[in-house]
Write a structure and sequence with these properties.
The structure holds three protein chains of three kinds. Chain A is α/β, with parallel strands linked by helices. Chain A contains seven helices and four strands. Chain A has a four-stranded parallel beta sheet. In chain A, helix 2 packs antiparallel against helix 6. The model of chain A has no long low-confidence stretch (mean pLDDT about 85). By secondary structure, chain B is of the alpha/beta class. Chain B is about 20% helix and about 20% strand. The longest helix of chain B is centred in the N-terminal third of the chain and has 12 residues. The termini of chain B are far apart. In chain B, about 35% of the residues are buried. Chain C is mainly α. Helix content of chain C is about 50%, strand content about 10%. Chain C is built from 18 helices and eight strands. Chain C has a three-stranded antiparallel beta sheet with strand order 1-2-3. A three-stranded antiparallel beta sheet of chain C has the order 6-7-8. In chain C, strand 2 and strand 3 form a beta hairpin. The N and C termini of chain C lie far apart (about 60 Å). The mean pLDDT of chain C is about 85. The chains are: A alpha/beta, B alpha/beta, C mainly alpha.
Chain lengths: ~170, ~200, ~425
């Protein structure tokens, strides 16, 4: 049954849509972002709460929280990154396949939070390039979902086809 | 019950102990070389089978005895706590005998005290850092170590190569505001114990 | 031509497996790093293990990946400024940490809080205990492979979060207590909402129990696994449900009662075998006992003030008085800038947190800033026993053992 509300007439054009490759690739990518939860401290509990039934991150297609970096798109750094843990975070980031994004969840991951001390790295953007920063201590699940929606917008604007032809380079920050 | 009778008996049995003032539980001073025997007797004879805590205090660089190790024991039989202060004889290389063979709980506590203060525990099976990474050169809880930290290279060479990151002092930005509370009001107003850089003074390179 | 080697492995109990494995120690040992980022390690715990086939021969935990320098920070903050840091120690039951810290400083300062404040603190501690055990059980089920209990317990926790948010303003990092009282009084009607929650909770706990307690798979995975002997538990400094599962009757709420716990009637479950199943059963039973305590607190809730009125140098007076009267204004100024004035001395206080006994050792040289604050974390001591009792188990048991110990790295590393 062909609906009258669709913007084109299927009987004329057939079931074919003509659009930019970027639009299709980005649309597919942003609606199935598989997060890699780098749950380090208290923000991990709010991450789990946003995956639970009340705030349901699954409606965005993100409930597949794979702890394997090879199978994930987006690393959500949730919690305080200490200098001892920094190399682990970087190694896991390196193991993720392109294209990959990083969300710094919470005050500690964004800038070190209230822990201005000798052992805490003042922001995870020192070692990985961050795409979205979420503030809060811990951020409410709604704030995290808002951040994931902003990430979806960012993914929508990426020049994906151009990136396909570029050789893979190690990203510094 | 840990009452005066118990205290008297304990002091009589172990002449090297001396009582300390305290508001909450029985506190004793114990010299370092008697610590191992004391711990053994506490576990086997007095019924203090739970080592609750083992830590240290840094009394400051000017103090006569700079470091003292503090132990807390709990007895299920007497339902009470017992605290021991053990002064470390040497201020430069403090050392105290380890009790990890008597109380296995002391194993990690002693490692943590070594990590934070630099106190060596003689006879510990595996004395290395536990909370900071193994090559960290400083002892953080000593009074002269600043809260913001000191520049050190990051422990992983491959990460440093790519990201050029290192362990930097945290930006205190003029905080936290604390006041000493004593003395003339104009001098004891809250001000930053300025450890690192602020808007006025440049970041040390 | 390949040579086939057959080797008999007896599926006996853990002890025989362990001794058999060590006898046949050939070069088939494998080093395995269960790294800091792993779904089973709740938080950032690293286990360096040596395996002989599937049997673990050596297990060395490496901690410190979440060491944030709390004790050094405490030497630079006033007593009230440090309260948010105590939230983030055991971040599954932040209110219990707040209460333990406030009680420590009040003990040194010699401040007695009124009955209403004590009742609020008991109520809030027990709600935190329910919250922590619900998450512990949900995640324990998830470790053993069951996803559904996790969802059910999280739904109940969301109801608790709504209650906490109404009381303190934050979902879970609450920073609710102050030295000498609590931040604000309970809102109108809050007690009725707590009562409704407590009436609905047994149904949810029963559902989780129906899924797990008599489940054949769950029993096979947890019974007889991870047995901690009574002497080992005491020798390694375990406290809380882990110690009680091994048969030791130590509950600080009964043995050294604080904040009015002696007025309430409740039982303390003690285990017999000390295995993972016992630890799970004890936590479920503790949730039920917490509900009993909450019922008693609500039914006889005292009226009065929620802070110590005569603690002039410790607790800031109410806002209306500060804005209108000079003396209270000065008092508030001194307390905020210099901190609550605590006399010199030292004190050690332990509270029965859901994870074990959380202790604070406080040394003060006068003034509003502590000289030394040591946080005795229950998870730190609970984890030190891993090296002793894990060898001999199979690799797949590690998830269940770690889940049953129910530790939190925020507290362990501080």
């Amino acid at each position: 049954m062909i609906s009258d509300e669709v913007g084109y007439n299927g009987k004329v054009e057939g079931d074919v849509i003509v659009t930019k490759a970027d639009a299709v690739i980005n649309w597919i990518r942003k609606h199935s972002v598989w997060p890699m939860p780098m749950g380090l401290a208290c923000c991990a509990i709010e991450l789990m709460a946003s995956a639970a039934s009340r705030y349901d991150i699954s409606r965005f297609g993100m409930e597949v929280m794979r702890f394997s970096p090879r199978q994930s798109d987006c690393m959500i750094v949730a919690g305080t990154v200490t200098y001892k843990m920094a190399e682990v975070v970087r190694r896991i980031y390196d193991q993720m396949g392109d294209p990959k994004w990083v969300v710094a969840m919470g005050a500690c991951a964004s800038t070190g939070g209230m822990y201005r001390s000798y052992a805490v790295m003042q922001g995870v953007d020192t070692i990985v390039p961050v795409d979205v920063y979420v503030s809060g201590c811990p951020p409410r699940p709604e704030a995290l979902l808002d951040a994931m929606m902003k990430l979806q917008d960012k993914i929508g604007r990426e020049p994906s086809v151009g990136n396909l032809r570029k050789p893979k380079s190690v990203s510094a920050c | 019950m840990i009452d005066d009778e118990f205290t008297k008996a304990l002091l009589e049995k172990n002449g090297f102990l001396s009582r300390r003032e305290s508001i909450d539980c029985l506190t004793m001073d114990c010299p370092a070389d008697e610590l191992a025997d004391m711990a053994l007797s506490l576990r086997d004879e007095e019924g203090f089978d739970l080592l609750v805590d083992l830590t240290a205090i840094d009394h400051g660089e000017d103090a006569e005895v700079r470091f003292s190790v503090v132990l807390h024991f709990y007895s299920l039989v007497h339902r009470g706590y017992l605290r021991f202060h053990v002064p470390c004889s040497d201020n430069e290389k403090p050392s105290v005998p380890s009790i990890s063979d008597i109380y296995p709980a002391a194993n990690w506590h002693e490692r943590e005290t070594y990590d934070m203060f630099g106190i060596e525990f003689a006879g510990h099976p595996d004395l290395r850092r536990i909370l900071m990474w193994d090559e960290y050169p400083y002892f953080p809880l000593r009074k002269e170590f600043p809260l913001a930290g000191i520049d050190t290279p990051l422990p992983a060479a491959d990460v440093v190569e790519v990201t050029k990151a290192s362990v930097e002092p945290a930006p205190m930005m003029g905080g936290p505001f604390v006041s000493s509370g004593d003395g003339v009001m104009s001098e004891s107003e809250p001000r930053a114990r300025d450890e690192s850089w602020t808007e006025e003074s440049e970041k040390p390179s | 031509m390949s040579k086939t080697v057959t080797r008999e492995i007896s599926i006996g109990d853990v002890g025989t497996r362990g001794s058999e494995a060590s006898e046949k120690a050939d070069s088939s040992r494998m080093a395995l790093n269960v790294g800091p980022s792993h779904p089973t390690t709740h938080g950032v715990l690293r286990l360096i293990m040596e395996l002989n086939g599937d049997v673990i021969e050596k297990c060395e935990p490496v901690i410190g990946y979440l060491h944030r320098g709390d004790e050094k920070i405490a030497e630079n903050m006033t007593y009230n400024q440090f309260v948010p840091y105590t939230d983030r120690l055991d971040y599954l039951a932040p209110l219990a940490n707040n209460v333990a810290y406030a009680l420590t400083v009040e003990k040194l300062a010699g401040v007695e809080v009124p009955e209403r404040c004590q009742a609020i603190r008991v109520l809030v501690c027990e709600l935190a205990r329910i919250s922590s055990h619900l998450l512990g059980m949900g995640v324990f089920g998830m470790d053993a492979g069951a996803w559904t209990p996790f969802m059910y317990t999280f739904t109940e926790r969301e109801k608790l979060y709504t209650l906490f948010e109404e009381l303190t303003g934050a979902r879970f990092t609450t920073s609710y207590t102050r030295i000498g009282g609590v931040a604000r009084d309970i809102p109108d009607g809050w007690l009725d909402r707590v009562k409704t929650f407590c009436e609905n909770l047994p149904k949810a706990t029963d559902e989780v129990e129906k899924l797990l307690t008599r489940n054949r798979i769950f029993l096979d995975r947890t019974e007889g696994i991870g047995v901690i002997a009574k002497e080992d538990a005491l020798a390694y400094g375990l406290t809380g449900p882990n110690l009680r599962a091994s048969g030791v009757d130590l509950d600080l709420r009964k043995d050294k009662p604080y904040s009015g716990y002696e007025k309430y009637d409740f039982d303390v479950p003690i285990g017999t075998r000390g295995d993972c199943y016992d630890r799970y059963l004890i936590r479920i039973e503790e949730v039920r006992q917490s509900l009993r305590i909450i019922d008693q607190v609500i039914s006889d809730f005292p009226s009065g003030l929620w802070y110590a009125e005569d603690a002039r140098k410790i607790f800031a007076p109410p806002k209306e008085k500060i804005m209108t009267s000079m003396e209270e204004l000065i008092q508030n100024f001194m307390i905020v800038t210099e901190g609550p004035q605590v006399p010199p001395g030292e004190v050690y206080f332990e509270a029965e947190n859901p994870k074990g006994a959380l202790g604070f050792y406080l040394v003060s040289k006068g003034g509003g800033v502590p000289y030394r604050l040591k946080i005795r974390a229950p998870s730190f001591c609970n984890l030190s026993i891993l090296e002793k009792f894990v060898p001999g188990h199979m690799l797949a048991d590690i998830t269940v053992i770690l889940g049953s110990l129910d530790f939190v790295m925020g507290e362990c590393d501080r």
